Amino acid sequence: MDLHFSSLLQGRLCCFSKDPLVDADTWSESIDKLLACKAGQAAFQEFLRTEYSEENMLFWLACEEYKKIKSTPEMITSANRIYTEFVQVEAPKQINIDCSTRANITKNICQPNLNSFDTAQRLIYSLMARDCYPRFLKSDIYQGILQNGGKG
């Protein structure tokens, strides 16, 4: 496993283990197991970076954090950040979603709620699960983790 990636995972607890990579073999069971684990998220994000689609993971993580927001001012600020970074046309990290989903988010961005990005997040999750996740499991990144002690 490359040194940069190894240091990236240092100290990230996975599935409540002492060793952040001890449960890496369970990541192949489902994308949910992969995404439930901080080290799994980091490994998948690194893989997506090599495929020039890191914005999918960044958007999914931003939506997960967004759903935890309790205050309206924070929700508005965060919704606008997510919108300008990922959703609007020509956004720096524009995600690949259909026009009607993008238009619906755009129409409602002035009055965001905790479900504002749910449809887009489901689309991105589906894309990652169907397309990126199977390639990740075959990737040098994941195989390297498994060979370097990622098995529990």
Describe this structure in words.
By secondary structure, the protein is mainly α. It has 8 helices and no strands. It has helices spanning 3-9, 31-35, 38-50, 54-66, 72-87, 99-108, 118-138, 140-147.
Keywords, separated by commas or semicolons:
152 residues, mainly alpha, disordered N terminus
Secondary structure topology:
Blueprint: H1 3-9, H2 31-35, H3 38-50, H4 54-66, H5 72-87, H6 99-108, H7 118-138, H8 140-147
The computed structural class is: mainly alpha
> What is the string of SSEs from the N terminus onward?
HHHHHHHH
The overall pLDDT average reads 88
Quaternary organisation:
single chain
Gyration radius over CA:
16 Å
Q: What percentage of the residues does DSSP assign to strands (E)?
A: under 5%
- Alpha plus pi helix count: 8
Query: Which word captures the global form?
Result: elongated
Low-confidence stretches: 1-18
Distance between the termini: 17 Å
Let me know the largest β-sheet.
none
Q: Please estimate the helix content.
A: 55-70%
What's the total count of β strands?
Answer: 0
Would you summarize the structure shown here?
With 152 residues, this protein is an all-alpha fold.
